[in-house]
Amino acid sequence: MCGATEGGLSLDGVNVAKEAIVQGQVLRDGEPVGNAYVRLLDGSGEFTAEVPTSASGHFRFFAGEGEWTLRTLAPKSDPVDRQVKAAVGSVAEVTVTL
Amino acid sequence: MTRENSLVSTQWVEDNLGADGVVFIEVDEDTTAYDKGHIKGAIKLDWTTDLQDQVRRDFVSKDQFSALLSERGVANDDTVVLYGGNNNWFAAYAYWYFKLYGHSDVKLMDGGRKKWELDSRELTDEVPSRAATTYSASEQDTSIRAFRDDAVAAIGVSNLIDVRSPDEYAGRLLAPAHLPQEQSQRAGHVPTSLNVPWSKNCNDDGTFKSDEDLKALYAEVGIDDSKDTIALCRIGERSSLTWFVLKELLGHQNVKNYDGSWTEYGSLVGVPIALGDEPGDA
């Protein structure tokens, strides 16, 4: 679903100026995890969206302005939470290590 | 309906792989998920091509649905077990769709594809072949499908449950946050609709919360059991899951899913819209 490029996902075809993008990669021992699920939780901890990672471990959200939490679920791992700040016109890159 | 006859566990599925009269069907938002691996013996339905009319915005007709299931080898008396990603988001939509066309024995695999994967259960890329059947769909059961006029008439009268995320409900986002936000319709919600995000029905692993927790969830927002209920979201998929919870798990009467949902309502000329976190007035 998403082609991996050096330094993150390709943003071809995405109007970055209008979106508050949060994206990144899930790794375990330095290797991409392609069967993880990443959830985006809003400032109150409420679930907003969830995506499965691509074969290269990548994920992407189109969030709104503000503070978000990324919660990553994967087989044989405890959930991992990461805080991230999103802003329209920018891309927040997050690496999640299991 | 109850949990016992509308849900099966991942273990039940594993124990019944290959069982006669049981058809496992994957329906995912990401329509390529099946191709990357699926439960052994499961077939795929593509919600964008198999379940939608390809010209106008509507479902496939009764005859098209009959032809589709015949070709895929599903019989009227088969037990259909649906599963998919994102807490069974699109599988619940397919469940509602099968009920709309009168299939009698349909179940969801609790937790969906995510739970199956988190359990480290086996996936295969082998595509099964099933002998064609002669499936016969019933006329649509519109007692479970709401249309735009029903949604407008429900303002201040019936329970309207908007199951989108709080930011979509308030008008701060126009789509779920994994999709681009640029859309043509107005932002906000149907006045008097209550916001109960669909995700609140589920645990982190995608399984449904207990009946007790679900009852408490809807009691807390003030859903009135004596009234009819319409669930809506953006395109009618997430609200299918809430429809499933209210109708099939909790046994509420007269629950409809509004599949036009916000992409239709938010584009209608002249209808009232409320902005912000409060339901607003009729």
- Radius of gyration from the alpha-carbon trace of chain B, in angstroms: 18 Å
Radius of gyration of chain A: 13 Å
Q: How many DSSP H or I helices of chain B?
A: 11
Distance between the termini of chain A: 22 Å
Description:
- The complex is a heterodimer of chains A (98) and B (282).
- By secondary structure, chain A is mostly beta strands.
- Chain A has one domain (19-97): Immunoglobulins (Immunoglobulin-like, Sandwich).
- Chain A has no helices and 10 strands.
- Chain A has strands at residues 4-5, 8-9, 20-28, 31-32, 37-41, 47-52, 58-63, 66-73, 80-86, 90-97.
- In chain A, strands 3, 4, 7 and 10 form a 4-stranded mixed sheet that branches. Chain A has a 4-stranded antiparallel sheet with strand order 6-5-8-9, with no helix packed on it. A two-stranded antiparallel ribbon of chain A has the order 1-2.
- Chain B has 282 residues and is of the alpha/beta class.
- Chain B has 2 domains: 3-140, Oxidized Rhodanese, domain 1, CATH 3.40.250; 143-265, Rhodanese-like domain (Oxidized Rhodanese, domain 1).
- Chain B has 11 helices and 10 strands.
- Chain B has helices spanning 3-6, 10-15, 33-36, 62-72, 85-100, 112-118, 148-153, 166-170, 211-221, 238-249, 261-265, and strands at residues 7-8, 22-26, 43-44, 79-83, 106-109, 145-146, 159-162, 194-195, 229-232, 255-258.
- In chain B, the strands form 2 sheets. Chain B has a 5-stranded parallel sheet with strand order 1-5-4-2-3.
- The longest helix of chain B has 16 residues, at 85-100.
- In chain B, 45% of the residues are buried.
- The interface between A and B is medium-sized, with 30 and 30 residues.
